[in-house]
């Protein structure tokens, strides 16, 4: 099943790929990657799948700890960045697959750990993707989902509007309750659900997607108005000496597949 927004995904991440791992945007912050690996507690014999892997930052963090890591993504430029970095760091147990999260090209019960990081807000059918992740997970295996938590109502729609203005491949952020419901609907036992605030500088966030004028100016003006007591955006905004910043709220959920599934 080809993603409905595949064209937007390819356009957006062809632009983002060269700088997606930049320290300025925190999307591949080492401390958080280490935290993710520690939360998963992988075994040396584990076979890991990273779904919608992007530049495979999470997969690369797992690679030294496990037998094999498979990274799947729909956009070749992002995968290529991950493949090049893996080669540079002699991570020879990694496999890179161009494919779609909506229809994973793997057999049932194939992986000990299945994870997806910062991807679900790009999916037009989150339930189908989650079911596919569960399908390829071994009984007793761990499913890890990390994504940005939606703003509280009534600002969810405004937050998603601004996210989509910056990156047209954005669909919507999920609430923590919506994320947890996918685990319960698929009979996974949740063992961990934690939120971490990840700071971002507005200018760096807009630069990553090469947001064009006047869209960039519109977003900046709305953020400034919010800080100054005007219309709220749904973003957790604050000012520093380096300009306007905000915190993304990253949710990490780890669940286990029932051994009888």
Tell me the domain tally.
1
Largest sheet: 8 strands, mixed
CATH level 4 superfamily: Vaccinia Virus protein VP39
The secondary structure category is alpha/beta
**How many DSSP-defined strands?**
8
**Which band does the percent of strand residues land in?**
25-35%
Query: Would you give the CATH topology?
Result: Rossmann fold
The whole-angstrom Rg is 18 Å
Number of continuous helical runs: 9
For the record, the CATH class is: Alpha Beta
The CATH architecture classification is: 3-Layer(aba) Sandwich
Q: Helical residue percent?
A: 25-40%
| Terminal CA distance | 24 Å
User: What oligomeric assembly is this protein in?
Assistant: single chain
Order of helices and strands: HHEHEHEEHEHHEHHEE
What is the mean predicted local confidence, pLDDT?
93
Low-pLDDT windows of residues: none
Tell me about this structure.
This protein is an alpha/beta fold and 261 residues long. The chain has a single domain, classed as Vaccinia Virus protein VP39 (Rossmann fold, 3-Layer(aba) Sandwich), CATH 3.40.50. Helix content is 36%, strand content 26%. Strands 1, 2, 3, 4, 5, 6, 7 and 8 form an 8-stranded mixed beta sheet that branches.
């Amino acid at each position: 099943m080809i993603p409905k927004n595949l064209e937007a995904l390819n356009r957006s991440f062809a632009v983002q790929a060269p700088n997606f791992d930049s320290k300025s945007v925190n999307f591949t912050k080492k401390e958080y990657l280490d935290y993710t690996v520690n939360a998963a507690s992988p075994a040396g014999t584990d076979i890991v799948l990273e779904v919608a892997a992007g530049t495979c930052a999470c997969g690369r963090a797992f690679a030294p700890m496990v037998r094999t890591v498979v990274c799947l993504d729909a956009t070749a430029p992002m995968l290529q960045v991950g493949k090049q970095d893996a080669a540079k760091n002699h991570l020879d147990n990694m496999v890179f697959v161009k494919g779609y999260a909506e229809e994973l090209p793997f057999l049932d019960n194939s992986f000990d750990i299945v994870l997806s990081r910062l991807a679900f807000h790009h999916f037009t059918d989150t339930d189908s993707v989650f079911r596919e992740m569960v399908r390829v997970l071994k009984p007793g295996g761990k499913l890890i989902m990390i994504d940005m938590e939606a703003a509280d109502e009534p600002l969810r729609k405004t937050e998603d509007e601004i996210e989509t203005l910056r990156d047209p491949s954005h669909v919507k952020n999920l609430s923590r309750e919506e994320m947890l419901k996918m685990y319960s609907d698929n009979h996974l036992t949740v063992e961990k659900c934690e939120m971490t605030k990840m700071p971002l500088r507005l200018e760096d966030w807009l630069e990553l997607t090469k947001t064009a004028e006047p869209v960039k100016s519109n977003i900046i003006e709305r953020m400034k108005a919010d800080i100054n007591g005007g219309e709220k955006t749904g973003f957790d905004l604050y000012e520093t000496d380096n300009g306007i910043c905000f915190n993304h709220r990253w949710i990490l959920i780890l669940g286990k597949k029932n051994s009888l599934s």
